[in-house]
Design goal:
Elements lengths: L4 H12 L4 E8 L2 E8 L2 E2 L5 E6 L3 H8 L2 E8 L4 E12 L2 H7 L17 E15 L4 H14 L7 E6 L1
Antiparallel strand pairs: 1-2, 1-5, 3-4, 4-7, 5-6, 6-7, 7-8
Length: about 160
């Protein structure tokens, strides 16, 4: 049975809630470019929110082609998530203030009054995940067993979420 949209959003939020940094990949002249970004929120609609400056290469790239990939990794929990979506720039003062944290002054010294400060909103279309709840020791034992028996190792859960 397929998850409802709200169940899918809940599953995505649960996987991403403890992963702060991700790699955002854009398309630039037919090439892929990635850079680290800090997720500010996964909202109730499954959208990802990031702070950025309107005068960055990623903004130019998104304006030319809004397709993006955001890759999350939490190796200590064996969780990996790849999110595909469409990005757009948002200059909503209320949303900026809602997501603002004083630590962001390190990147935006003028704070919420920075005229170039804006948000990047990723409307998630699909996510793919790999999740192994086993400890590293159990994974190594499973890997060794696979080598000895000639059977494929169990790498945990893998699935897709469509929004």
């Amino acid at each position: 049975m397929e998850d409802t949209r709200q169940e899918s959003i809940g599953k995505l939020k649960a996987m991403l809630e403890d992963i702060d940094f991700a790699m955002l990949t854009t398309i630039a002249g037919g090439k892929l470019r990635s850079r680290p970004m800090s997720t500010q929120e996964v909202d109730e609609n499954g959208n990802l929110w990031f702070f950025t400056s309107e005068d960055t290469h990623k903004v130019d790239e998104i304006e030319a082609d809004d397709r993006v990939l955001v890759a999350y990794s939490k190796p200590e929990d064996n969780t990996f998530v790849s999110v595909f979506g469409r990005a757009k720039l948002v200059k909503d003062r209320d949303k900026i203030e809602e997501l603002w944290n004083p630590i962001h002054k390190a990147w935006f010294p003028e704070g919420v009054d920075d005229p170039k400060l804006c948000l990047l909103k990723i409307s998630v279309k699909e996510a793919e995940y790999w999740d192994s709840p086993n400890s590293k020791l159990v994974q190594i034992a499973g890997f060794m067993k696979a080598l000895v028996t000639g059977h494929e190792a169990d790498s945990g859960k893998h699935g897709k979420i469509n929004l």
